[in-house]
Every structure is written in structure tokens, then in C-alpha cells.
From TrEMBL:
UniProtKB keywords: Allosteric enzyme, Carbohydrate metabolism, Glycosyltransferase, Pyridoxal phosphate, Transferase
Pfam families: Phosphorylase
Name under which the protein is recorded: Alpha-1,4 glucan phosphorylase
Cofactor(s) essential for the protein: pyridoxal 5'-phosphate
UniProt record similarity statement: Belongs to the glycogen phosphorylase family.
NCBIfam families referenced in this protein's UniProt entry, alphabetically: P_ylase (TIGR02093)
PROSITE patterns noted in UniProt: PHOSPHORYLASE
Amino acid sequence: MAASAPGSKQGLMAESSIFQVSAGKPSFGGMTMPGLVRQNSLENTEAKTRLASLIEAYDKQEEPVDTQAVQDVIVRHLATTLVKTPQTVDSLATYLATAYSVRDRLIQRWNETQAYHESLQVKRVYYMSMEFLLGRSLDNALLALGLKRVYSASLADLGFCMEDCLEEELNAGLGNGGLGRLAACYLDSLATMDYPGWGYGLRYQYGMFKQTIVDGYQKEVPDEWLCDPNPWELPRPDICYPVRFYGHVTSVNASDPASPPLTTATGQASTHRQRWEGGHVIEVMAYDMPIPGYATNNVANLRLWSGKDVGLFDLNAFNAGNYTQALDAKMEAATLTAVLYPNDNHMLGKELRLKQEYMFASATLQDIIARFKQTGRPWVDFPKLVAIQLNDTHPTLGVPELQRLLVDEEGLDWDTAWDIVTHTFNFTNHTVLPEAMERWPVPTLEKILPRHMSIIYDINLFFLQKVEKVYPNDRGLLNRISIIEEGYPQQVRMAYLAFVGSTTVNGVAAIHSDIIRNTVFRDFLTYYPASKLVNKTNGIAPRRWLHQANPGLSALITEVVGDVSWVKDLRKLTQLEERIGNAEFEQRWMAIKHANKQRLTAYINQVCGIKVNPDAMFDIQVKRIHEYKRQFMNILGVIHRYNQLKAMPENRRQREQPKVVIFSGKAASGYYIAKLIIKLINSVAEVVNADDSIGDLLKVVFIPDYNVSVAEIIVPASDISQHISTAGTEASGTSNMKFVLNGGIILGTVDGANVEISDAVGHENIFNFGCLANEVEDFRHTQRYRPMAIHPALKSVLKCISEGMFGDPNVFRPLIETVTSGGDVYLVSIDFPSYLEALKAVDRAYKDKTNWVAKSIRCTANMAQFSSDRSIHEYAQEIWDIKPCPVPSNT
């Protein structure tokens, strides 16, 4: 097997395999299992050669997949890995044993993939993201390996149910929203399409939080997703890197024997360099998660970093009676990756978040450099083997960190290093909201990362000097594009640093890319070529978001296409349109939708204690709770509908379309207004759902603790889904794609990917409303200085809230004031009238079931453009310059 790069400067065990397998495989019950060989355990060259041949032979073994063989492996893990007896086996143990048996297969393919890619020295992409919302892994892995049926049968023979087994898995707490779900989809597509690529992130001990609802309010409790053993992660204690904080910077002469001379890539000597010293250093340890490709031998890798607390116990302090001090270092290391995005409403939270981002960037870059150095190639070849994608601004410290490592640690001169940096990084921008544009106070950076602050100053100086040569005397331009924003204190604009440090910058939907081209990065494009900023519309993985989440619809599609090849090529879904007008097919289509609604109905009853009618229209909005996403406008529309129903005569009321309005999503723990929106939704639900005169004509549900697994139940059940952000504020969205792929129809603004979805599925198959992006600023100006009269329908609804129909009106006053006296930044009052008209149009269309099912089929049939496979192919061809490298079969 070809050796891979080591994991640290000390020369670690080759990474070409996660586990090195010994020649003598201990047996248990007729089965064989791998044993771990420690680093440098074999000094004899002949023994090493023999071991390498045995490992290669082991990796080429084809394990049988009949039910008996699967049962044997599961039982082996129950008995030896989990130490269970027949009397102590439960569903959790069965899940773990099943997962370990599947992981065994993934590890073998992982080994083969890494060895093959390394033997060819192919260029890899490294996708850096602070979030990866993977969801559950077992079902996904079984489907990818084509083993779902044999494992289901094997478990059934052992007396266990596959569904119960799958339910035992906790969702990995590695993300909190669309950013993380996108990253997970992209890893799936990288592996499935055979592109050489890894993901890099942080291993949070606790996820964002688990959401509970108490008296209508969101309450946060720890998301202890690692409370059970996690069979999908592989601890790598041999792969650790030092990460420094604080300290000071000193100048060092190249003649200093402790400091190797600074040289260019061609060997030209230089005389000056900087050294970062002092402060304190922690060790950061790797955890690997294999990411299987669907119907391919390729297995990608997600490497997560965690502060290593081993060896940090201060025995002297403990013996002296300073018990807390003895644990300080361990606690600090653990704290760095304790929680996803710590609350940064206070300075300590801000500093912790900055440390998280730097720890992530530094460990990742050290790891990539170590792997590159194993190739023996010159530094000028670094961008030929490495492409790094920054998923939003969180990993942007990777830009000055790579420059530091190349200049301070590897001895390259500034210009050579900067040329490597700017030909290695690429940056995805995900927002236009000012509050989401990450900035760091200069004093904070100088305190925690003094060397990086000096590097950022130099990057900015050299960049502005180059611009000034082209545009002399334009101080306004220099001020607008400066990475350092003037103020008290000065701020480092991370999006600008990412832009300057990257080869290519991309938006994530056509309208979003146009907006950032004309706003955030407009001045940069007076200097850089227009081709530096491109569009790469987001996509979703059809394996999880249709094949796995909606097995009934997946089976029907497979019947139409003739095989399951559509899972890797959504263009084949266009064949569905040929079945429109076929009454039997349309009935089967809607029967699958109804079954999915029944599944969601049962879940709502179980979790919320609310009984809803699956025959009603399911109107769904699930996503992070935020003012710009306008869940507030949605619940105002619900109140309007409720008032209308109450005002109708009984005989007229019963002719109305029954509707279940479903919300789900989390508000950031420090986001007061978003939390009030959740409270209002639940308060409205309490009143509406208890009104016997309304009954099933209107129900309101808030499903707590939204995550990937909950989404897999919700998405296939939608009749209509709402994506109603203020135009120009939602970069793309991906939940809109998931709903439409599953035959759901969109009610949405002309924003984000809604625009492209409308073009793809047909404008007659989507319900658009609201002002356009180019009108938003004019409306905001009007609302701020000369507010327009509030529409009577909205005025009536707000009056209901302020008069106490849904509880103490003082509770909701700050929420109401965002519309009435707060400038109405997100234009609820402007769009509310057209929103009500769009809701009426949905009601009318839904009554025509024949036309509605045709819309539903057309939606699914035309979603090929929104596959993450298409997105990744575009990134690979147009940004990363990488090619598919399928691992050949051993048979």
C-alpha cells in the first residue's frame, strides 16, 4: 500500500490506513478481526515488507454480504466490542454493533481510497467548514453500500427491527443550519462523484443546543450527542498539532542558528524573519469520520479537530492542594471545542469563538502541509496538489495562517508564500446581511494572535499599494476596500481578507452573486478581473434528501426510470413528466404523499401532543428563526386566516380548505426577537388548536428541536412550503430545494434560489409574491422616514396581539414594534398584502387536485440543476481544477 502523509512533524504512522492490520488476526466465533499495530513497532525491514503485503491482501478481501455473514459480524461486535450477553442486548447495543460492522467495511474502502489517491499524487480539495450537519450515518451508509436489504433481513432474523435500530442513532451535533447541511451534501457528492477531497471541521462536544418549549418559550439544554459511543468517529491520538495563543512577536536575523534562513522557492537567501513566541500552546487532536460515496468504492474523509486534554494534568499543583489549578489546562483545552458557536454577546464568548476559528485553521493547515511535504514536491507545486475552499468567513484565518507557516516555519520569502496562498484558497460568501459579515476587533486579534495581526497589516498594506498604483489619489476607494475598517476600535473585515487571499470568490445563487457583485465586493472588482467573482448555486444530495428520506417516492421513481441510476443523475427525473395525465400513476403519487403526511401526523402527535388531520393541506416553514426569514409574517397570516374563519357563517366556513401550518427551527440563544417569534407561534397555536368551532379547519404546530432527522420526516410531507425571506436577504437556501425535490410546491419571495427553482420547474408551478430585491432599499428608506399606512388586514392582526388575544400583550410589544415603529427593516408591512393574495391563490389551486398533482410531479421532475452533484462538478471543473479519481475494484 502507498504511504500517506504523516499527521505531525514528528513523523506519525502512515495515514494510508486508519487502522494498520497485524498479520495474526485474532479470531472470535469463526470470524477474524483487525488488531492495531503501534507506530514503529516493527524495525526489521523484512518484517515491515511482510506486514505491508499482508495489509494489502487484507484490504483486497471481499467480505461476504449474505445474512449469515452479516449476523456473525454483528454478534461478534455485541460480544467483544460491547461486551453484551443475550440477556443484556438492547436496541442501543444492536444499533452500535450494526454500526461497527458497517464501519468495518467503510474503513477498508477508506484505506483503499487514500492509498490510491496518494499513489497517484492527485490534487485534492480540502473543504473547510465550521459546520457539517451530517444527520444520522447508519442508514446513509447502508444505502451507499447497497446493503440495506441484507442488513434489514439479518436484524429481523436476530429478532430486531431495522427502524428501531436506526432511531437509536443521535444526530451529530456539528452544525446548526443551512451552512452545515450544505457542507454535508458537498462531502456526499465529492465521495459519490469520485473526486479526491476531504472535509475539515471541529468536533464539538455539544451541539448548538437541544431545543425544548416551556410555556411557549424556547429553552436551551445541552445537546449531548456524544453521550453514547460514536461508532462513526475514529480517534487519531497519533495526529496532533501545536496551536499557540497570545505571546509576542520578535524579529530574528537569519544568521541566528536557531532560525533557519528565509529563502525563496528557488533557494535565494533572505535575512529577516519573525518569530512568534510565548503565550501558551495546546495540542489539537484529529478525529476521522469516513464519508461513503454512493455505489462507488470511494470513501472520503471528514477530519474533525478537538483540544487534546491528555497529559495536561498538573500533578504538582494537585499535590500542593491546588485541585482546581491542576485541572485548568485540561479544562481550557476541552472548552475550545465544547460548544458549537459559543454565545458571543460578551467579550469572553468573542475570544473563545476567535480561538475556535484559529485552532481550526491552524490544525487544518499544518495537517495539509504535512501531507504535502510527504510528496517531496517543491513548494511551487503546492497549489497543484492542494485546493482549499473556505465555507463562509469562519475559516478565513487560514489565509494569514498559511502565510505564517510558509514564511515563519518553512522559510519561504513573503512574495513566494503569498503567491502560493492566493493560488490555493477559494472563498464562498453566504450572506449580504451586515450583521453576518464577520469582523474582529483589532485589539482582540493583537492580544490573542499577535503574529497574525501583523501579517494581516502587511497583507493589507501590500494590497492597497498595488491598488494605489492603478488608482492613484483615490483615498475613498482605498478606504472602502481596506481589510482594516477604521473605527473605535478598528475592525478586521474577514470577508475582505478572504476575498484578497483567494483565487476565486463565489456566491451561492444567481441573484445572490449579482447582489454581492454590485454591493459588498463592487469596489474590489474595479481592481480585480470580473472573473474572480463567480456564481455556484447551492445543491442538495439526492441520496439523503429523496432516496433515503422518501423511500416510497424513491421506489416509484425507480420503477419509472427502470433502475436506481437516477440517484446519481437527476436529469433522468424528467421521465416523470411523461406520466402526467396517467390517472393511476397520479393516484400512486398522491398516495405516497399521503403516507408521508400520516408519518408526520404520528410524529406531531408523539412529540407535540397535537392531533392533526393528514387530509388537510400541510403548509410548512422550517428553518432557523430569524427576522429576515419572516416566520413572523407567516404567523401573522395564520392569525388573519383564523379571524376570517371565525367571522364566517358555519355553512360557509365548512367549505374552506383545512390547513395544518407547521413551524420548526431554533433561534440563536442570544436573539431576543427571534425567541419572541417562537413564543408568538406557540401562543397562537394554543388558542387556535383549542377552538372547537374551528376544529380541523386550522391547526398550528411548532415542532421542537429541528434537526436533519426531523427534516427527513417533515420534508416529504409538505404540500406547500414557505420560503418568504425579504428579497435580497437569503443568499440561496437549500430547504427550498429539498421540498421541491420531494414534490412540494413553494410559496416564496423572489429571493435566493427561489428564482432559479422557478425558472427550472416553471413559473406556473410556484407561488411568488412580494417586492423585488432592487426595490428593497427604496422601501426601507420610505419606512424609516415616511412610513406608509399599515394595510387594514395587518393592522387588524396586530391589534389582536396588542389587545391580548394570545396572552400578555406586553410580552409581544417589542415584536410588534419591529413593524410599527422600528423601521420595518424586513418589510413585513410592505409584503403582507401580496402575501395574503398568494395564500388565497394556493387555496384555490389546491382544490383542483388533478392540476395540483401535475404541479407536484413537474417540480420533482425538473430538479436536476439543484443536485449537489452538479454544484460539486462545477466547483471541481471551474474553481478547484480537480478530476474524478475512481478507486478501481479489487475484483
